[in-house]
Design brief:
single chain, about 0% strand
C-alpha cells in the first residue's frame, strides 16, 4: 500500500470520529475548540510573517553591507589614485630641481632629457 492509499482510507475514519466526538460535545465546547483552532491558524500565520520579515531584513542588511563594501573599495581606489598622482607630482618636482641643478652646473643636454627616471651613465676616459 502506498501512502496515498493509507491516507485515503484514514480520512473517512477520522471524519467520522470527529463527528462522533462533536455529537458528544456541547455547543460551548465546540466554540472553544473552534476558537483555539482559529488562534492556532493566526499564530502560524504570524510566525510565517515574522520569518518572512526576518528573511527580508537579513537580505536588506546584506545588500547594505555589499553597497558599503563597494563604496569603501571605490573610495580606497580613489585615494590610491590621488596618492599616485601626488607621487608623480613630487617625482616631477624632484626631477625639475635635479635638472635645474644640472643646468646650473653646465650639463644642459642631460638636463633637457625627457626621461623622468634617473639614469646611471658611466663615463670612460680615453
Amino acid at each position: 500500500m502506498s501512502l496515498g492509499d493509507i491516507i485515503a482510507q484514514a480520512v473517512p475514519d477520522v471524519i467520522s470520529a470527529l463527528l462522533e466526538t462533536a455529537k458528544q460535545l456541547s455547543f460551548v465546547q465546540i466554540l472553544l475548540f473552534g476558537f483555539v483552532a482559529i488562534m492556532a491558524l493566526f499564530d502560524a500565520d504570524k510566525k510565517a510573517r515574522d520569518k518572512a520579515a526576518k528573511k527580508k531584513a537579513r537580505a536588506e542588511r546584506e545588500a547594505y553591507q555589499t553597497r558599503k563594501r563597494a563604496y569603501s573599495e571605490r573610495y580606497l581606489a580613489y585615494k590610491e589614485r590621488q596618492l599616485d598622482k601626488l607621487e608623480r607630482r613630487e617625482r616631477a618636482a624632484d626631477m625639475w630641481s635635479y635638472r635645474k641643478a644640472l643646468s646650473e652646473n653646465g650639463l644642459k643636454s642631460y638636463a633637457r632629457s625627457s626621461n623622468y627616471e634617473l639614469k646611471s651613465y658611466s663615463f670612460e676616459r680615453f
